[in-house]
Amino acid sequence: VLPLIFGAVAVIALFVPASAHSEEEVRIALAAGRSRVSIEGTKLALFDGEGGVRLAFASAIATLDVRPEEPGVRVDGRGLDRSGAIRAKKLVIEGPDGVRVDGRLYLGRISVEREASGKLIVINRLPIETYLLGIVGSEMSPSWPIESLKAQAVAARTYALQRRMMMRAANRPYDLESTVLSQVYQGAERIRPSVVDAVASTRGEILAFRHQLAEALFHSTCGGQTVSAREAFGTEVPYLAPKKCGFCTGSDRYRWEVSLTLDELGKRLKNAGLGSGKLTALAKRRDGIDLTFGKKKQSVSPKKLRAAVGYTVILSERFDTQAKGQKVIFRGSGFGHGVGMCQWGARGQADRGLGHEEILRHYYSGAEVKRAY
Ligand SMILES: [Zn+2]
Fold first, then answer.
1. How many beta carbons lie within 10 A of that of residue 98, not counting itself?
2. What is the C-alpha separation between 146 and 142, in angstroms, rounded?
3. For site-directed labelling of 221, which of 98, 114, 193, 248 has its Cα 20 to 30 A away?
4. How many angstroms is it from 247 CA to the middle of ligand 1?
5. What distance in angstroms lies between residue 367's CA and the mean position of ligand 1's atoms?
6. What pLDDT band is residue 275 in, cutting at 50, 70 and 90?
């Protein structure tokens, strides 16, 4: 996950009195900019999101075809207790066994409305603990040891609560996206008993620093040492300091190597708006990467280079380069930004018998695990 705010507005009284806080609801944007959405489910109930009036009900399976139509949406359904098109400013759908949106199953409520652009936006609303059931198994394999899944649950809960607070303060229609931009969310598709256990046994636990929600950043593999928030994002965060991690050697991205031709690299850089003309050399220096285009030289940061070449090609910003004829060999360590919890490291620590609080304290040193509800 990427950083949010680094403590800019995160002032909430989470802990006094703890009993006054109950579980929060989160809003996940599943799709935006769509001109059509297909919805399916059993015993679905359709409501008008504005007035709460029930528009239709299905006693068995129903399929809905939703499209934008001024000023809201139009639904053509099969299996409903009324015929003809249904129109609503904002449509809310619920079902006792969840709702399928474009084939994928989600728990909680689904709302569909028309954006200012004239396209549809689909939002899933559900209690945060239910949301976490869909996150933990997407961010980590459900087969990983339970203490690493619990550490992931606490980090993901902290991140979601912080996003929720920030997005509501900014008056946004949703709190989180469903992609790697926030947290990978695949609805109810990957809920497994181990994940349910990890979420339930850490219910309400969050990571706090000086009575505020911490920035619980995490990444796949640090490659031996985590990176400070200052180095990765330019902001000093006391508990996001570099930490030794000898626990992620099990990751096949602990060390990696990729070889690219200067032509390929030149093309990718050009597509990203970097440099001009033919790339004739690329070399890592102490404080950046030198790009040579014939007689012209340009320097870029590892971050910019990774973004330009591709996040899944150059797996981290922690690499060296070696020129070999028309090729450049990149040798690097780790996968991801390297800040906060190393997921493969959490797995390694859990394998060695450490508990989730110890794992979290290792990667977010100075932050504490607390109960928000
Ligand atoms: Zn690590």
1. 19
2. 8
3. 193
4. 6
5. 18
6. confident
